[in-house]
Amino acid sequence: MQVMKERKMSDKLESVRTKIKQIKNRKSDRSLKIMLVICILGFAFFFSSRLIFPKVYRGIDTAIPGDVLDMENYIFTLESWDYAKDDKAFEIILSVQNLTLNKKPKYDFVLKADNDIIETKVHRIIKGERIVLRAYNVPRRWTEVTLSISAGKHNSHIGMNDKDVNKTDKLKSLSNKEYEIKAGKALMDGLRIKMIKEEKEIQKLDEKINYAYDKLVKLEEQKDQQTEKEKEKTNASKSQIANEMERLKGELDVKMTEYNEHKAKYLKEMQHVDKLRSE
Fold it and tell me: How many CB atoms sit inside 10 A of residue 198's CB?
């Protein structure tokens, strides 16, 4: 009887141990599941954070078709910059003046989108003076990009953002002539933007110069009723205003020169495009 009692007691103890073990295992499984859920949510948040948070802009200067990069022996002009959303790609057209005797110059192009380096390849070279670049796998939520250009011992760069870039759905396969027309039209659009901006700046400078002139006339008229000491102050003011007016005239001359150059280039490009279309 004693043996039977001891065996029953042993069986009960073993049953209790088994239940305790099962409870511990269930708790362990639950903790593991919680940890897995936390990890999954963490990874999901990390990879989707670009989609959740608003875009961040550093405020880089963006290029306009017609912008020139003067690298001494090589002069690059941006003619067009397109972003094809469906292809997640850029197509950039540059014209280049090679002022050296090097018949086959080597150019390097590196495109950086935010923090990602994007491989950029020369898609086509037209008549040795127009370069069509293409860059694929552009991040879908890109904000700003910088294109670095190296030629000879010199390098420079231009920037673009997703607000100012020309947007299209897909990249098209164009002939050399079609690329020339496309580049010409985009260049004309860029030059038109520059001229509109310059016209506004010229108008502001002209208004400031006219105001300065009127102020000089008014101060001179006031001298008739002033004492000698007051005249000295008036003359000092007139001298400062006259100096400022000369500085403004210098700025105006520079802006007028830029405007006339862009206008001449615009008219030449328009004639070139019209000629290509009629051929």
Answer: 18
Whole-model pTM: value is 0.73
Residue 270 one-letter amino acid: M
The pLDDT of 265-276, averaged and rounded, is: 95
The pLDDT assigned to 3 comes to 47
Q: How many CB atoms lie within 10 A of CB 66?
A: 22
Are the C-beta atoms of residues 190 and 66 closer than 8 Å to each other? Answer: yes
As a whole number of angstroms, the distance between CA 212 and CA 251 comes to: 15
The DSSP bridge pattern shows strands 74-84 and 89-98 to be antiparallel
- Residue burial 226-242, b: 16+ Cβ < 10 Å; e: rest: eeeeeeeeeeeeeeebe
Helical H segments across 53-175, by residue range: none
Residue 121: partners with Cβ closer than 8 Å, 6 or more residues away? 133, 134, 135
In the numeric block, which tokens belong to residue 6?
A: 């001891």
The residues, any chain, with a CB within 8 Å of residue 156's CB and separated by 6 or more, are 69, 71, 76, 148, 149
> Helix 228-278 crosses helix 176-222 at what angle (to 10 degrees)?
160
Q: Which amino acid is at 124?
A: R
Q: What are the structure tokens assigned to 218, written together? A: 């008014």
- List all residues 6 or more positions away from 167 whose beta carbon is below 8 Å from its beta carbon: 82, 83, 85
212 closest CA partner among 243, 191, 173: 243
- Tell me what the mean pLDDT of segment 100-119 comes to: 89
Half-sphere exposure at residue 3, Cβ-oriented, CA atoms within 13 angstroms: 0
Neighbouring C-alpha atoms within 13 Å toward the C-beta of 233 = 5
